[in-house]
Amino acid sequence: MRRSQPAIVLALAVLVAGCGEDATDPAASSEQSREGAIDVAMANADGDEVGTVTLVPEEGKVRVEAELEGLEPGFHGFHVHDSGRCEPEAPEGAFTTAKGHLAGAGDVHGQHAGDMPSLYVTEDGRASLNVLLDGFTTEELMADDGTAIMVHGDPDNFAHVPDRYTASGAEKPGPDEDTRKTGDAGPRVACGVVGTGT
Description:
Elements: H1 5-22, H2 26-33, E1 38-44, E2 49-58, E3 61-68, E4 74-76, E5 78-81, E6 119-121, E7 127-133, H3 138-142, E8 147-152, H4 177-182, E9 188-194
Antiparallel strand pairs: 1-2, 1-9, 2-3, 3-7, 4-6, 5-8, 8-9
């Protein structure tokens, strides 16, 4: 059966108009879902900006979006630290004034609220991460003196050290005390303040 071209055009116009009424504007959805987002500028120990970590609240959770560059290739520990201070010339080492990982009392590494998935940096020094986490809220990150987002120089083992391994000088097999605190993630190479710190 042959249909006239005007009839087909009219049918398509009605279909498109109908879809337009029910469709949601993607840009509007994106703006709504990003309400309350916090952009965290990340800098290395030389003071050079290396990118941004964006924290987006999502129904009691936080979406963490990292876009970084100028880092050494490979895996890097990536955490929220307990104090909103990123001082590259701190007496005990770069960014040590950010204190330890954001954690509840008695939590060990791998279970800290501030433990995030490792950051993978490609050969060109760039890293991109997008993950939804439920260990903290943006309100908690901004409370008191704030918190800090930290990139470490080494991979994070999340204190997953099997009992068949014993650290040099350790009294028993498995992770030692340092590993339980930091996952052996090494020096702090980039930091960004969340909240009102320095």
